[in-house]
Design brief:
The chain is built from 21 helices and 17 strands. It is an alpha+beta fold. It folds into 4 domains: 13-160, no CATH class; 169-297, no CATH class; 305-407, no CATH class; 410-519, no CATH class. It is elongated, with a radius of gyration of 40 Å.
Length: 520
């Protein structure tokens, strides 16, 4: 069976036009009926040929039948495809009721059009939207692909420069302003934020001799500036019209200029391809490019430290101080980075934990050794139970343990203590090695009915600043405890091993215990 000729099957969506859309489309069809030249680009180059010469002949013929809907329907199915779209469009003037509208989606958005005649949807969209700089270029995309022509659409202008890329200055200015680069300096269109002094994306528009430069803040507002710049262009390859680069200038507080062009590198071709296809936006391009630049720096044997737009050369001390003033964080960072031999580049907003995490697998043990003993560092770095914890948490746990170990080392060990000595020792040891919460837990757990122990407990509560437990004690126990408070406080606040021992002996003597307190 022969395939039925006719309109090719397209995956389209249809919609009933609103009164406003119907009125707008009919209005444009009437304008085209009286002036077919509205769909023909203006030629500003001496090409030696004109692809629209035959089209113009057919448009003139169609115009003679503009009041004959039957003839227009026939002309919409043969001849030049642009002329067919013209015949189909002006034929809408004779329709009592507007047909369903089809919609097509492109990177620049979704557009509605009347699907009539036998031609391409691009021709129909371009003709029916001849007043739209963005959509009318669709009517010539076949000429771009077949003949390598260049078209520029802006305002009420539709320009053809033949096989030479030569965008009009007004188009360059209009396109630059559309992405936020409205300030002109020399041969460059700049965004308002002095982009050359910060991270920026630069479009060197080769054929125009101009540049468009956006800071990362402005670039982040546009999904894809390349698409926006080329929105009114119909050229063989938009990406070939530009040389795209990403810049990250660095300030050197010391003035040594050690960083130079450290972060300046060509953008990878694969990234540019994804960007030109719309799979990446400006921000993604900048971020992925900088990520690749950082990865390449791993092979550069040079100690340089960069944070945001500031280069510290090989001054690790100044670099770390610029990040944090917390002693534990700064010392662990210095330990972490002391053996890194390639450039270290971090964003100004990167947290200490993020920086630690970046180098933890290779240098985490050095970070720990900078703040705790080698034995503790090895223990916490190799602890499998902490594998899922953040580096900063591991460091905090290690320093906490180091503190407890230090406090414990200053507390003598005793043998043969009475129940009174054991109770006082347990409270003091818990407080010094685990903190107030642990000491209170020991006190709360003590259920003795011995008045001396209860008076000692009341004294410790008072020394810890806890006055809400007094209801548990008799008046005699409270009075005795108040007397012992100063001695309990002296024991808890003692620092050296000798002071601890003396304070414990004195506390027990004041509590009425005459036992001999012997250190091991």
């Amino acid at each position: 069976m022969r395939k039925r000729k006719g309109i090719p099957k397209l995956r389209i969506k249809a919609r009933i036009p609103s009164k406003t859309m119907e009125k707008d489309l009919i209005g444009k069809a009437k304008l085209l009926r009286d002036d077919p030249e509205l769909i023909i680009p203006e030629c500003v180059a001496d090409c030696g040929f004109c692809p629209f010469r035959k089209t113009r002949v057919q448009l003139e013929r169609i115009s003679r039948f503009k009041d004959d809907p039957a003839k227009l329907a026939k002309l919409a199915r043969r001849g030049d495809k642009l002329a067919r779209a013209y015949a189909a469009t002006i034929g809408l003037v004779h329709k009592e009721k507007m047909p369903y509208l089809a919609t097509a989606t492109y990177p620049g958005g979704t557009v509605a059009y009347a699907l009539r005649g036998k031609t391409t949807k691009e021709k129909l969209i371009g003709v029916q939207n001849f007043d739209s700089p963005k959509w009318r270029v669709l009517s010539v995309v076949d000429l771009v692909q077949k003949k390598g022509l260049h078209f520029y659409s802006y305002g009420d202008k539709f320009i053809c420069t033949g096989r030479i890329a030569k965008p009009p200055e007004d188009y360059v200015r209009s396109a630059s302003e559309s992405v936020g680069a409205s300030r002109m300096e020399g041969d460059s269109y700049l965004c308002p934020h002095n982009p050359l002094s910060s991270n920026h994306i630069e479009f060197d528009w080769v054929s125009s001799g101009k540049k468009v430069i956006l800071c990362d803040q402005c670039a982040g507002k546009a999904k894809n500036s390349l698409r926006k710049l080329g929105e009114g262009m119909a050229v063989p390859r938009v990406i070939d019209e530009f040389r795209i680069s990403v810049g990250r200038p660095l300030r050197d507080p010391a003035g040594s200029n050690e960083c130079g062009d450290l972060l300046n590198a060509p953008v990878d071709k694969d990234l540019l391809s994804q960007y030109s296809e719309g799979r990446l936006g400006d921000k993604e391009l900048i971020d992925k490019h900088m990520e690749e630049v950082r990865e390449r720096l791993a092979d550069v044997q040079k100690r340089v430290f960069v944070r945001g737009d500031r280069c510290f050369g090989d001054d690790l001390e100044a670099f770390v101080k610029d990040i944090s003033d917390d002693p534990t964080e700064t010392e662990s960072l210095k330990g972490l980075l002391s053996n890194v031999t390639h450039p270290v580049v971090v964003d100004s907003g990167d947290s200490v934990n993020k920086i630690l995490a970046t180098y933890w697998s290779d240098h985490g043990k050095e970070a720990l050794r900078a703040v705790v003993s080698e034995q503790l560092a090895d223990k916490f770095y190799g602890d499998g139970e902490l594998a899922g914890d953040s580096p900063i948490k591991v460091i905090r746990l290690a320093t906490q343990q180091a503190g407890l170990d230090l406090a414990s080392s200053k507390i003598p060990k005793y043998a043969g203590l009475s129940v009174y000595g054991q109770f006082a020792d347990a409270v003091a040891r818990s407080f010094k090695t685990k903190g107030q919460t642990a000491a209170v837990a020991v006190l709360d757990a003590e259920k003795s009915s011995d008045h001396r122990i209860r008076s000692m407990a009341h004294a410790f509560y008072l020394a810890l600043g806890i006055g809400t437990k007094s209801w548990k004690f008799t008046d005699e126990e409270k009075a005795y405890g108040a007397h012992l408070e100063v001695f309990a406080k002296g024991l808890l606040e003692s620092r050296s091993s000798d002071d601890h021992h003396k304070s414990l002996v004195e506390f027990l003597q004041q509590a009425g215990s005459v036992e001999e307190v012997r250190k091991i």
